[in-house]
Please model this.
Amino acid sequence: MATASSYSVITLGEAAEEAAERGFGLGGPPAPEDGRRGRVHIRRDFDINSFGVNAFYQAQSGAVVVGEHEETGPGASGHEELYVVVEGAATFTVDGEETEAPRGTAIFVRPGTKRVARATEDGTIVLVVGGKPGEAFTLSPGESMSGFFGLYREKDYEGALAILRKALEAHPGNALILYNIACMESCLGHAGAVWEPLTESLAAWPAYKELAVKDEDLEPLRNDPRFQELVA
Model:
């Protein structure tokens, strides 16, 4: 990325390849069906404060380039989103309806609509621009946790927890952030500090109960009657 005094430039192809090398999500060896996927954090890297924008890359045809979501839930922004295929091609499935999207295709999707896209050519890049109707741009709960997953992978649980606490200041009561705070407290051996954020998280978003039952970070709590009551 080259930066001038009044504008910034990024080469998406190069940035996308680098993003794929860093991996997507929590890291670790990807499942074969995941291909080589990466996210270019355009908004964050350019420090854009008026709208959300990222690019998603998939090196392998047939694998997911835009993960399935609805822009709802604890980590979501509630954005309406515009997807533009800038390289390669993809098949979008929006509320069960498939649309072929060769290079140059733009697809607009409103919040609450389930969408997913699979690359149909190697090296597919999809640019995504989003914003919440009628509201000034703010960081979503998920984006406010930026940096958390990298520290988590490195087992820097103190550093990861610090990011989460700052994110919680911006999004009080958010179930996603609270759940991960509970996980980090558990990883640090702070058993007594787990219960409040975990209880609040599961009350706000009961779907996390199923996740909690299987979550290795919460393994030390499994046999505690309080945990069993929370996930019941």
Observations:
- Residues 135 and 175 are 22 Å apart (CA to CA).
- The longest helix spans residues 157-170.
- The chain has nine helices and eleven strands.
